[in-house]
Specification:
Strand content: over 45%
Helix content: under 10%
Largest sheet: 7 strands, mixed
Number of helices: 0
Number of strands: 11
Structural class: mainly beta
Shape: elongated
Order of helices and strands: EEEEEEEEEEE
């Protein structure tokens, strides 16, 4: 069974740091890109950072968050520094996974279950 499993959320004071991790498991041929999204209460889910080739970041987290990927382990991490209360949200790992199907290989979009990050002021 193919799945993404996140870890590393929690409660932190403003100015603190957290690292989120996400591991993709199952019969995966390759991974085209891995991303982190977040959704705050009452708001739409937004893209925080993505890494396929070069990393890209939302303007709100540039200079504070760093996304990294281990291709050999099928993992992606998000190091979050200088956290602010407005960073409070459920963070979701997302990936475009290439899987083998009956008619050949295809790319599929997968989501993790989400992990809560709460930043207190």
């Amino acid at each position: 069974q193919v799945q993404l499993v996140e870890s590393g959320g929690g409660l932190v004071q403003a100015g603190g740091s957290l690292t989120l991790s996400c591991a993709a498991s199952g019969s995966i041929l390759s991974i085209n890109a891995m991303d982190w999204y977040r959704q705050a209460p009452g708001k739409q889910r937004e893209l925080v950072a993505t890494i396929g080739g070069s990393p890209n970041y939302a303007d709100s987290v540039k200079g504070r968050f760093t996304i990294s990927r281990d291709g050999a382990k099928n993992t992606v991490s998000l190091r979050m520094n200088s956290l602010k209360p407005e960073d409070t949200a459920v963070y979701y790992c997302h990936a475009y996974l290439v899987l083998q199907g009956l008619s050949g290989s295809h790319e599929y979009s997968y989501w993790g279950q989400g992990t809560q990050v709460t930043v207190s002021s």
